[in-house]
Design goal:
The protein is α+β, with helices and mostly antiparallel strands and 235 residues long. It contains 10 helices and 6 strands; from the N terminus they run H-H-E-H-E-E-H-H-E-E-E-H-H-H-H-H. The protein has helices at residues 2-9, 29-32, 43-60, 87-95, 99-116, 146-149, 153-173, 190-193, 207-219, 223-234, and strands at residues 38-39, 63-66, 72-75, 120-123, 133-136, 141-144. The longest helix has 21 residues, at 153-173.
Length: 235
Amino acid sequence: MILFVVLEKFKLPLPRWQPAGLLAPLKSNSQKLRNVEIPLNTPDGLQVLKEAIHAADNRYRPKMIIDPLGQVSYRYSLREGEKKKSEAELKKLLETSRQNENYTRKIYRIIDTLTSFGVLVVIGEPLKRGASGEWDPFHQVLRLSPKSLNMGSEVVLEILNHESIHVAQSCKAGGINYRPQPLDLPLSPERITGKPLKSDVYASITSTQRRLEQEAYSYEYSNRAARNLLAKHCS
């Protein structure tokens, strides 16, 4: 009888089980947001986004110049890292610049989709230095760097597509608060996915992280693919 009493007194608690890959409890929007970040789930936040990308689109839209003799030339601002374009490329870009409105609509749509799954999309500096965008499953926040807005609507949409695929990878693992895992998607050729992975941002990634990035780079140009993957894995 004495032995039984001693054992009861010092009985160890059972360990609390947590699913593999779980990073943090689900958070409210107020818990997700840092003071310096602008949330895009509000009209004010969306207005900041709209004005920034509209200004950038106007800055990078080619302008046709016709001199008094009728000679045509083009004025064009290069984005960071962009190669000089030929006259034919500038002419085509001028003709398709109305696509910017379509890009903007798609930006709003995918932000709405992400918000519906509990993701807070914000304008804010990524925790990883040098990144244009970032999916943070610990805080359940997708960050767009302020400088990325200066690249225009097409680039912002690509960043959102890319990071949305990472969100889908988290959802496949168990939810938006889980560590991402590969979706086992077919990949684009190495010549497409390998070049961006040479950036210093990815200097110390693991083989699994490399696979995650390869999937995101393979599908970042397709807004439909990004939204379909979110619907498939996060619903």
